[in-house]
Amino acid sequence: MKILVTGGAGFLGSHLCARLLERGHEVIILDNFLTGDKRNLPDPNGGGSYRLVESDVTEPFDIRVDAIFHLASPASPAGYVEHPLETALANSVGTYNALTVAEKYRAKFLMASTSEVYGDPLEHPQREEYWGNANPVGMRSCYEEGKRFAETLTTVFERSHGLDARIVRIFNCYGPHSDPNDGRMVPNFVKQALEGDPITVYGSGEHTRSLCYVSDLVEGLLKAMFTEGTRGRIYNLGSQDEHKVIEYASTIRRLAGSKSPILHVDPKFDDDPKRRRPDISRARLELGWAPVVEMEEGLRNTIEWFRALMSNENR
Ligand code: NAD
Ligand code: UDP
To answer: For ligand 1, is residue 185 a contact (CB within 6 Å)?
Structure first.
């Protein structure tokens, strides 16, 4: 199959492209490197065939493909607060452009949405039926509302234009290829632990997240795209292993063998969701999917990847 991955040079997209190449697909990566990195691109000598289109998804494009994974968008709070307009447009205009190409070539389509569509959820764990508690004008709204609109557009193309489309709501992921400077919890804590700097916990650290290792998430993306009967469906993809932020700080510190102090500092962004954990019953039942990588194993892999990256950068 010929498959387009928008945002393929990013954290999740790069792992997805590597898996698609392993499966023998022809891959096209469309990325403008707003938050992605060339070091994430597949090894040209690693086997498989891929093509890079260095372009902005908000510019109309025309590429004949059989399937589109639409991932292009900044994804970290620091990334979208720094690029609010780009984020809102990648998810609105960019999603429209990608859907138009999918419609033209009758390609399968997957919209990479987010748990942020649930806002600061009042329901716990979050089921796909929940409409969310999102602030339309907060600092996160370029992302939250951008993704909510992207879901609306995807649904319109599926219902009214006959497009073979599905939506996945991705919950917090971590692993190699994440941007060390994107301000997210795991990159921050790992970098701080390895450098012996204070580990910055925002507020009390009582907030919770459930973290999904990247290889599990990619498996979920593939199943959502290629399992029979997924057209028009929405799936939460994430881990149910919920912990407090303060627990992640001390686990990462221990696994990194670090003596960094844990420092409580003022929260950086407003509307920080207090609890987040997906209900993944639907993905289990319809896709036969659930995460398998244990938190400590995933964190160890991530710490080793960061260690290697940082030692290369210091050379
Ligand atoms: P990332 O920032 O590492 O990757 C996004 C990629 O999209 C980057 O390579 C960036 O350069 C590219 N991009 C951004 N705007 C673009 C544009 N206008 N045109 C072309 N390329 C553009 O983020 P990620 O963590 O890999 O997230 C990928 C997708 O998954 C995003 O849509 C994000 O919303 C979603 N998601 C991720 C997480 C997570 O925990 N990582 C959680 C929920 C949802
Ligand atoms: N966080 C923190 N210190 C950091 C970075 C993040 O305490 O240096 C907290 C943040 O306030 C949130 C959680 O960790 O409660 C996850 O943040 P992240 O930015 O990874 O993702 P989010 O779930 O907010 O999109």
So the answer is: no
